[in-house]
Write a structure and sequence with these properties.
This protein has a domain at about 50-185: PAS domain (Beta-Lactamase, 2-Layer Sandwich). It is built from five helices and ten strands, in the order H-H-E-H-E-E-H-E-E-E-H-E-E-E-E. It has helices at about 1-40, 50-65, 85, 135-140, 185-195, and strands at about 75-80, 95, 115, 145-150, 160-170, 170-180, 200-205, 210-215, 230, 240. A six-stranded antiparallel sheet has the order 3-2-1-6-5-4, sandwiched between helices. Strand 9 (about 230) and strand 10 form a beta hairpin. Helix 1 packs antiparallel against helix 5 (about 185-195). The chain is globular, with a radius of gyration of 19 Å. The two termini are about 25 Å apart.
């Protein structure tokens, strides 16, 4: 009986890992579509993305419907341009926020809104955004990167995970497409499968920081030792321990 129970637990943990992989694969598929829309079929940039204003229109059409869903997965989404795209040092964030719960930066909102850096004193913090993880790693690896969990002091004022993917033209990155997801929203997506695993499990990032946990003693952001029994979630840097 113990062997049967162990087999069922292993299968439950594997199923939870597959649920994590499927969720982030869905996000990455969306980012891939956004890259193609920005670059055009020939990779050189379509007529609708040749100026910042036109780019904003294109990106807004892509992301706003997702942020308007009845129960949106995303709390933020869009495109962040490299200085090479704008032709100067100006920040250009084609980035929209979904409806927000009460927070000290934006209060509460009921509709998607454009992130307005010009009116925010903290925009100076982003002057060197190319050094931040969500930008620098896609730039150096040419691959999609998942940052977090971390507390977003810019918009959501809560624990989030950020997924960013490089948009490249002629071998150079012209920016990143990305999404922000509340950790508490991830919990709603992933907890049912994790609770069905048959034992307490914790979803950790590549640094061992807890993202979602069925162990009430492990809080988001805590460092957890992975050990030999960790199960990797394919296509992500995450493991279930």
């Amino acid at each position: 009986m113990a062997e049967i129970a162990g087999t069922q637990t292993d299968a439950g943990v594997a199923a939870a890992a597959e649920r994590v992989s499927a969720l982030f694969a869905r996000i990455q598929d969306s980012l891939g579509g956004w890259r193609h829309a920005i670059l055009g079929d020939d990779g050189a940039g379509s007529a609708s993305t040749t100026t910042p204003a036109a780019l904003d229109s294109t990106v807004g059409a892509l992301v706003i419907p997702l942020l308007r869903e009845d129960d949106p997965l995303l709390v933020g989404a869009g495109f962040i341009a490299a200085p090479e795209f704008t032709g100067g040092d100006d920040l250009h964030f084609s980035w929209w926020l979904g409806p927000l719960e009460e927070n000290p930066v934006f209060g509460s909102t009921s509709e998607p809104s454009r992130l307005d850096l010009a009116s925010r004193s903290y925009s100076d913090y982003l002057r060197d955004f190319r050094s931040l993880e969500w930008y620098s790693i896609p730039q150096s690896t040419h691959r999609t990167h998942i940052t977090g969990p971390y507390v977003d002091h810019l918009c959501a004022c809560d624990y989030i995970v950020t997924v960013t993917s490089p948009v490249e033209r002629g071998g150079r990155m012209i920016g990143v497409v990305g999404v922000d997801v509340y950790v508490k929203r991830l919990e709603r997506e992933l907890l049912p499968a994790m609770l069905a695993a048959g034992r307490p499990v914790v979803l950790v990032n590549d640094a061992g920081r807890a993202m979602v946990s069925t162990d009430p003693s492990v809080l988001v952001g805590a460092v957890v030792e992975a050990g030999d029994g960790a199960v990797r979630c394919a296509g992500t840097p995450f493991r279930l321990v």
